[in-house]
Write a structure and sequence with these properties.
Length: 426
């Protein structure tokens, strides 16, 4: 048992890297609509709300600047960059995330999409049994009912035959969300949890109806986006590993706006699990290793910490006394985060600004001061701290409670606040 006093002293370190840390409720955006334009196209874990991304972009960059989101997920920051006349790059390991980001940032004539939607629905009735392409991935009938598989296979067959890539991918994203909503997995969870037997008895989703409704909603969002995003400012989502960023990106960057993972996928958000069923239906490659390749995906062998963060060293010592294995998980995450920061620094212009939206999660009852650790790591790379803004999380799609011990009924609070860490190079 770790004395509470030790825990408190560990997480309340006053770091020389931190100049200003304030709590500002104006960043909460409680009650604000977060699904405007293309932002509501597809659910995704821990999405940055567009109001935060927009405010950071407008306050710390200028029109025509180049922006990077090195952990872009489904592309919320890239959408805001394009709407606000910035060129942008997004990097992510998850092929499903990159597909969604590409569709969300690409303006398409809404009338063309509407016409194609009615063609899809009409062609479903004319489709012959022998034309239907039904996938055969492992455990498909565990995760989907027989009639659902048949209806999804019909949709997939029709969508796959759309010739125009941009239009086909638009409807693939709609299809992906329908896969999630019509599966036997609880749609309120990011990890795969099959409904209990009693719930499955009444679970009778209609994939065709879900597809029609979702497609119409996405076309409505595209109509607003299309009217405001037709300009030369491009967005480029790239499938890649941020710890090896310069292998896929050499463009000079003025501003980074991002929300990286808050910890390793095993104990925070399992992006690979979230994407698995959709990726299998769409035939996407590479989703299998997303969680292993994510920050902290492979645990370190020892607790030796050589990273330039005194706060991290103290935290590792405290957690290590309680659970050495978990301390190794924590250390591995920060080692990979530091690798990513080194790569990001290589493409940053002098006086460029980094904006990281992060949460300080708990491990073994100890709140990890990731905002302080991040500031210390960046200070070592030659960045100066401008501010850390604390905001409440009123509605962000991520787990607020979890079961760290994996004991039924035993849960703990995870993250209710975020820290926006703002640093400038040089």
């Amino acid at each position: 048992m770790i004395p509470q006093e030790t825990v408190v002293n560990t997480i309340s370190v006053v770091s020389k890297a931190i100049k200003q840390k304030i709590e500002d409720s104006s960043w909460d955006y409680r009650g604000e609509f977060t699904k405007a334009y293309t932002h509501g196209f597809h659910s995704y874990p821990a999405m940055m709300i567009p109001q935060v991304a927009r405010r950071l972009i407008l306050e710390y960059s200028n029109e025509g600047d180049s922006l990077l989101d090195p952990f872009c997920g489904s592309g919320s920051v890239l959408v805001e960059a394009k709407l606000n006349k910035r060129y942008s790059f997004g990097i992510d390991l998850n092929p499903l995330a990159i597909l969604i980001a590409r569709v969300k940032t690409r303006p398409i004539e809404p009338k063309l999409l509407t016409k194609q939607l009615w063609n899809i629905l009409e062609n479903l009735n004319a489709l012959q049994i022998e034309e239907i392409e039904e996938p055969n991935f492992f455990n498909i009938r565990f995760w989907f009912k027989e009639m659902v598989i048949f209806q999804l296979a019909k949709l997939k067959t029709i969508i796959s035959n759309i010739e125009a890539t941009e239009v086909r991918e638009f409807f693939q994203v709609v299809f992906s969300e329908v896969v999630r909503l019509s599966s036997n997995s609880r749609s309120s969870e990011f990890k795969l949890y099959r409904y209990p037997y009693e719930r499955l008895q009444s679970h009778e989703p209609d994939p065709i109806k879900l597809f029609k409704n979702k497609a119409m909603a996405n076309i409505a969002g595209m109509e607003k986006y299309y009217s405001e995003a037709r300009d030369p400012y491009w967005a480029r989502p790239i499938l890649g590993d941020t710890t090896k960023l310069t292998q896929v990106l050499q463009h000079p960057i003025h501003i980074v706006v991002t929300s990286p993972p808050y910890g390793d996928s095993r104990t925070t958000v399992a992006y690979g699990q979230f994407s698995r069923l959709s990726s299998q239906w769409l035939g996407l490659e590479g989703y299998e290793n997303v969680d292993k390749k994510s920050l902290g995906g492979i645990s370190v062998a020892t607790l030796h910490c050589s990273l330039p963060s005194e706060t991290l060293s103290e935290v590792i010592k405290v957690i290590g006394k309680a659970d050495e294995r978990r301390a190794k998980d924590v250390l591995s995450f920060y080692i990979d985060l530091n690798k990513a920061l080194i790569e990001i620094d290589k493409v940053m212009k002098k006086r460029g600004v980094l904006c990281f939206v992060i949460g300080n999660r708990s491990v073994k009852g100890i709140r990890l001061p990731t905002d302080i650790i991040l500031a210390e790591l960046l200070t070592n790379l030659g960045y100066c701290h401008l501010a850390t803004i604390i905001r409440n999380i009123p509605s962000k799609a991520m787990p607020l409670r979890n079961s760290p011990s994996n004991i039924a009924g035993r849960v703990s609070d995870t993250i209710h606040k975020e820290n926006i860490v703002i640093m400038r190079k040089g």
